[in-house]
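So, can you check?
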Amino acid sequence: MVKKADNTRIKTATVTNYIVVDPKLDAAILPPIKSIIVPLGAKPPQGRLISAFGNKSTNDIMRHVRRKANKEEKYILRVDSIIDRGDLSPEKICTIKSLPKIKFLKLDRLASETSEKIYNIIHLPSDGDQMDTHSLITTYPERLNRIFNHPDFAHVNAIAWKAMFSQKPLKRANLAAIRSPDIFVRSEIRNYTGNSPMQFEI
């Protein structure tokens, strides 16, 4: 829990992005903060920042991007951002009743009636009936914008889902689509002592 500028206390979650830095360029000007790439050729929701979420998923993704940067003789700066997550229900899942208070929506923490509501928002006739809510978003993460744009979810700051990073072996990681970087309570670049302004690349 943190205090906002007006001294109100809010419950928060942390999401992570990164900056790829080329040591041959001017260190006083930082490149933009990158979205996490949605894996396996899936399309991200247009106009949304994609962040890593959860300790294990974040560490796995950061190791991957560091290895890639090292091969290109670059390095990574980790950027952690704090987001207002709202309140969870006592059952720790999103029910229809608790939905208006939840600002960080986790698609693997939905009550059946909430899952059905979201399914009806994102499902297309061409999908058939073989996939549930979470499977649809794993396959078509661009449809997260259907949730963001629905009036019943206008208060939601971020939507998290388990993205599939490989099929054999099966490997998933938590990603979060952020409505806009403007909703961050604050962002911090780890191990950075300069004063270059932060820019998010959407």
Residues 55-71 form the longest helix (17 residues).
